[in-house]
Target: Protein GrpE
Amino acid sequence: MSDEETRKEEQANEAEAAEEGQAQAQAEGGEETASGDSGLEQQLESYKEELMRAKAEMQNIRRRSEIDVEKAHKFALEKFVKELLPVLDSLEKAVESTEGHEVHNEEVVTRIKEGVDMTLDMFTRAMEKFNVQQINPVGEPFDPQQHEAMSMVPSAEAEPNSVIAVMQKGYTLNGRVVRPAMVMVAKAPEPEGGNVDEQT
Model:
């Protein structure tokens, strides 16, 4: 066999080996691509779930923010109302102090009382415009959400656990208690005589 024939045979063997190697590489590459596709799909699903969670969290944050802003608007006047309540109390006391007393100059007292009454009425109406409502619960059942019990008083006439007197009126702003009413609450009277020993 000549050198040229030997060279041709070697080249043919090399070409055949190269083709086999290429075919094997393609087969292995196909397997890797299949497993790679599966990994990509799992990663894609994971990203989708994270995106859904992020969207839900954003919706919750937006909803909470809207509620907070609404409350801030609704109760922005609360401090203002608290500051004005003592003025309202003083006007009521002034009206009460002129009632049932003998005064030398009846006409002057009448004018003062009328003026204070008008001021109190105007003030009360102004407060009502801002949804400030009075809590004056005489005769109503005691409600710890709106009333503050100052004392319990035995009473045969009133229902137990009902308000029999208001020491200081309470107020609400948009339905929320700004100041509870200070009240006296009825309780059942104790039986007369207490424990009596039976005579034999």
User: Anything to note?
Assistant: The first helix runs from residue 3 to 74. The radius of gyration is 44 Å. Helices lie at 3-74, 78-97, 106-129.
